[in-house]
Amino acid sequence: MAQAIFIWIIISHFTMKLFRFLLLFSGFAFFLQTVQAQNQPVTGNIYDSQTKQALAGVSIKTSDNKLLTVSDKNGYFKIENTTSDQHYKFVLLGFKTQDVDYSKKEGVLNIQLDADESSLNEVRVTGFAGNRTKKETAGSVGMITSKDINRGSALSFQSALNSIPGVRMDQSTLSEARISIRGNGVRSSYGLRNIKVYLNDIPVTEADGTTRIEALDVNSIGRAEVIKGPASSIYGAGTGGVINFQLQRSPYQEQSLEASGLAGSYGLHRLAATYRNGGDKINSYVSYGWQEYDGYREHSNDMRRFLSGNFQLFPSNRRIITLLLNRTTQYSQIPGSLTADQVVANPLQANASNLDKQAGRYQTWTRVGLGQQYQINDQLSNSTSVFTYSYDLNHPLPYAYLRNYYQSYGGRTSFTYNPGFSELPTKFIVGAEFNEGLTKGTQYVNNKGTEGAITGNIDYRNTLYSLFYQSETQLGARTLLTLGLSYNSLKYDVSNYLVPAQSGIKDFKPQATPRIAISHNFAEELSLHASVSTGFSPPSSSEVKNVDGSINPVLQAEKAINYEINAKGNLLNSRLSYDLSLFKMDMKGELIGQSVQQGITIYNNAGKTTHNGAELALSWQALKSEDNLGIAVLRPFVALTYSAFKFRDYQILNAKNEVTASYNGNALTGISPWVISAGLDLETRFGLYGYLNYYYNDKMPLNDKNSDYNASYQVVNAKVGYKGRLGKAFEVNIYAGIDNLFNESYSSILSLNAVGYGGAQPAYFNPSPKRNGYAGLGVKYFF
């Protein structure tokens, strides 16, 4: 027994010695590792999470706000003397502060900062390829973020886009939408016209200038920049402007899975699932959505299926690769327009012809895009994207049944060169865009929603290319001169298989579109800009036809010249931001559509118009989170638009090109003199939030004769909710809202210049929903 005790004591002694040795060795090893980590420099790159633009001037600080270093002009940073806690803060005006725990990281960091929606004048924009703040950019650039979209039900861009002065989106049912910028596009009979639309810098607009945005999942959009007025020097054809949508990207360091649901009036329901992973090597965003809506009116059901994938890879500190995948299915019924008497009798009814012919739009879109941003050296960089885009369309209409298949491909590239001039520093940008689309179209008699006899079999091969140049010269420390020029060409090749004599080629005369702009930053309170820009909008392939279906050889593109003065700044300790624009745009060769018989419209270059206006956006941060109150955000805002648009030289021509009427001096059809959009954002520190929107639209002429008007209307929307964490692993967002709170009767989208045949009233109106509500729940799990 004593021997056993002795042996146990010996073993315990050596065990204790061994334990102490291991403990000492572990402490020494940890010390060496810590010293090595402290001596190992931390390097990385900093980008705008949405635009992928490198961010210069970002302050990197310790957790106790000690400045370590600042990112260079390419967004690169290096921390030589690292701290023991390895917690860093990345700070830049216009962006949310990003906290990073480097102890959990290995290798090069690729920090991605999110824009601060409360400081939009300081957010970097890609408009005009300048990578400057909104306040520094010479030109009118509006911006919406996912937060703006989610101030409502997030089923439409309408409320968010209408918060930008000069921009108007009309929509009654989910199947029909129209966007206009400064009056351009309001006369479009379907889809978008005169406005270029991009998604992640990939064209959504087809080669002939038409755009359908129904393929975009509103919930997946992270940001949109709107250039108002001609932007042809960078983006090619388009007198109205440009909308560049960006799909959401995952917040930096977040890996999560979210499930969400929404239900509302008129049979509305939506389910969606989203995966996010914001890493240093790859940023992944994948979303699938399923949505159905019975509709406010008879025959207005809408069904959507969305699949969106947005991937951003960082293979090196000089290269970013992006991949876009998008597939959307839409089945929508079209109720059609009503006369004034029909609206009074029953605004829920469908147009009799649309109902009888089962008018609708049934299609599936597929879009794939691949892009690369490459910093070749300190002076030269390149951005290139290639894409392919297709859809199949099954489209019964009151007067025909269309089946189309569309396939397009193309690409866009630009080189940015900064030679480093010591005098008059200048940055040069040169690039090109190419887009070719083939439409294989077949038309039938519509027998109550089914195909009858074939009446047309036509292929359209449309080819567009644009070459562009831009330079930015620093005339002084605060003065910038911008010069731009593009050369654009468009060709339609039409093959009519039933009537070969109507085949042919419409080759538009190439257009050169210059732009000049100068800006001066007086102080934080005032940045002043002046610009002169030109643009053009060719007719679409469906608008180049004569009444007999042959190609109109004399039809040419609309042309515009825009003069603008723009003032932006921040007042009241940067809490009040403003953006004021005064502009004058003259258009000539305006395309005027004339209904010559039921179901047939022809177009002529028969008009000149003047677009004179003023736009003002105000946003006041009455309370912010740093005020250390229970309220994190209290922000009232307002957008005012004044439009004095007139026909200057406008004659009506019949099918024989004979003048039948003159409307010189009349107000431009479909334009309201005054539009007001206002709102109030309230967010608390403990998760409760509320949003209030107000929209006023002045009365406007419904026809060129100015004999019929749409009455003014005002709409109020409200939303409340709670968003907060449940432990470390879950986040919940529960909300409810009411649209058209005061039950206003109005029509947002209108059929302008409608004609009543046989003595009937014109069917102008598409009644919008009366008071309706919705509620939703989102649950996010963090890995």
UniProtKB/TrEMBL annotation:
The keyword Signal applies. GO terms for cellular component: cell outer membrane. Residues 134-241 form the TonB-dependent receptor plug domain. One of its GO terms (biological process) is siderophore transmembrane transport. Keywords: Cell outer membrane, Membrane, Receptor, Signal, TonB box, Transmembrane, Transmembrane beta strand, Transport. GO terms for molecular function: siderophore uptake transmembrane transporter activity. The keyword Transport applies. Residues 293-741 form the TonB-dependent receptor-like beta-barrel domain. It is found in: Cell outer membrane. It is a multi-pass membrane protein. Belongs to the TonB-dependent receptor family. This is TonB-dependent receptor. It comes from Pedobacter lusitanus.
